[in-house]
Amino acid sequence: MARAFKYGSVKIANETIEAIAKQACNEINGVIESKTKSNKEAKKDTKVSIVNGFVIIDLNLVISADVNVRKTIKNVQENVKRQVETMTGLSVKRVNVEVNSLVI
């Protein structure tokens, strides 16, 4: 995503936004890991899209079985949105979360 400012422009790679989102996920109690598949596979588990100037983030998580899943996902969504908006200045429209598995 590129933005123009008075003294030049700034470009933020989708991979940078992915890294911020993954770090924000890992800050939440109960999240075991935010998954990314190997480079051999075409689809990454964490995906960032820019639609009409808004950021949409898709996450796949492994969560601990001893936490409230709904509250944990809500906390993940709020933290990812807050961190990405704070660190990049971009507007996050959606944070979609898929729970791949629960770990006991």
Helix/sheet category: alpha+beta
Helix proportion range:
25-40%
How many strand units? 6
Question: Radius of gyration over alpha carbons?
Answer: 14 Å
Largest sheet: 4 strands, mixed
Question: What's this, in brief?
Answer:
By secondary structure, the protein is α+β, with helices and mostly antiparallel strands.
Features:
elongated, 104 residues, single chain, four-stranded mixed beta sheet, two-stranded antiparallel sheet, 2 helices, alpha+beta
Polypeptide structure, described:
This protein has 104 residues and is α+β, with helices and mostly antiparallel strands. It is 32% helix and 39% strand. It has helices at 14-26, 69-88, and strands at 2-5, 8-11, 31-34, 47-51, 54-64, 91-103. The strands form two sheets. Strands 3, 4, 5 and 6 form a four-stranded mixed beta sheet that branches. A two-stranded antiparallel sheet has the order 1-2. Helix 1 (14-26) packs across helix 2 (69-88). Mean pLDDT is 86; it is low at 36-43.
Q: How is the secondary structure organized here?
A:
Blueprint: E1 2-5, E2 8-11, H1 14-26, E3 31-34, E4 47-51, E5 54-64, H2 69-88, E6 91-103
